[in-house]
Amino acid sequence: MAIDRKQLIIEAATKSFSLFGFKATTMDQVAKIANVGKGTIYTFFKNKEELFDEIISSLISEMKRAADEAMDSTLSFHEKVHRGLYQILEFRLKHQLTIKLFQEEKEMGTPAVMEVMIKLEDAILGYLKEKIVAAIDKGEIQECNPEVTAFIMLKLYVALIFDWEKRNEPLEKEEIAKLFEQYIFKGLSNR
Amino acid sequence: MAIDRKQLIIEAATKSFSLFGFKATTMDQVAKIANVGKGTIYTFFKNKEELFDEIISSLISEMKRAADEAMDSTLSFHEKVHRGLYQILEFRLKHQLTIKLFQEEKEMGTPAVMEVMIKLEDAILGYLKEKIVAAIDKGEIQECNPEVTAFIMLKLYVALIFDWEKRNEPLEKEEIAKLFEQYIFKGLSNR
DNA sequence: AAATGACCGAATTACTCATTTAGTCAATTG
DNA sequence: CAATTGACTAAATGAGTAATTCGGTCATTT
């Protein structure tokens, strides 16, 4: 079969979004990098935003997979959540595309980027919520509101990883796990 | 004695900062509202920022006073922190000036405003830290790092009061107290 | 001595117009 | 003839610039 043009376009766009962000990426540029006529892009994607969305959807899958891989079923719930969340947030910290988008969100407030960041947060919250519900069912943790609990866990992690080091020495991964246990978990655990 | 020009200037500036924010407030405007020549302002304050700083310093005192008033010594540490923090954040939510500055911080990133918001956060953290150290000394709570604990408490409260309601029904004061107890306190308390 | 407001240079804003861009579609290709 | 293309268009952008505004000063007034 001939080269997969759709894949070429996705790869080109990913590269360009990672390098220049959403706004500064032009469709002409994507077409050029992909070695494809601009019109071809529009046979696969309705518009620039849809192309962007498709890329973000894969990113979300990739994140979930990374989080799942960081856990294993022998771990306690508390260790699972710590490793999963840490993995996701580290992913955010290391991945070119997420770094660029994070920056574009706060520096320029590009609407399409804002939207996508909400989607990303929702995906993380949904993922967390799933784990929490499962843990409640198994009696690993107390009854609690899964939405609020997921929200609090995420906020705490973001605060410890991103916000704390704005004004202090960064915390080690182990310290974060310990703090998480001390503040959240000892209050949640059945034992 | 004649009218207190310094006080007039402070009142005029507070009014204008509250109404238009820091950047959009002109010294001519402050002078006009205060019924004072512009030059007079500069006999009391080195520049616009110093005038702003003095106003913020009183604001911080006012906040601390409000927090202190919301507590009484018969309360448990957990109730004290809840009431104090809630008071401070509600203050932020209701006070014209803080609302305007909060908005100016994220929408325009005015440097002078950013600086002052850091100062405000530091004041809250310092205040909290004091209460935490006292509680540790009295054996009311476990040993813990007071800086990190203050930081986590503030972040949790801000998340529950400001961030949660961006995408959900606002939480009642009682719910917030309960969540705070459930997630933070049960893990901290000696009993 | 205290207060003032006209004045100044720097910074910001309003505006304009040439350029760029997202998306279309008639022509082209294999 | 289905897939691909890039010239084309209307809309958005932003560089350049003229005009205004602003923070701060200081000679004058009270």
Description:
Chains A, B: GO terms for molecular function: DNA binding. Chains A, B: InterPro entries: DNA-bd_HTH_TetR-type_CS (IPR023772), Homeodomain-like_sf (IPR009057), HTH-type_Tx_Regulator (IPR050624), HTH_TetR (IPR001647), KstR2_TetR_C (IPR041490), Tet_transcr_reg_TetR-rel_C_sf (IPR036271). Chains A, B: Keywords: DNA-binding, Repressor. Chains A, B: This is TetR family transcriptional regulator. Two copies of one chain form a homodimer. With 191 residues, the first copy, chain A, is an all-alpha fold. Chain A folds into two domains: 45 residues, Homeodomain-like (Arc Repressor Mutant, subunit A, Orthogonal Bundle); 131 residues, Tetracycline Repressor, domain 2, CATH 1.10.357. The first copy, chain A, contains nine helices and no strands. The longest helix of chain A has 27 residues. The radius of gyration of chain A is 19 Å and the shape is elongated. Chain A starts with a helix and ends with a helix. Chain A binds a DNA duplex (30 and 30 nucleotides) through helix 2 and helix 3.
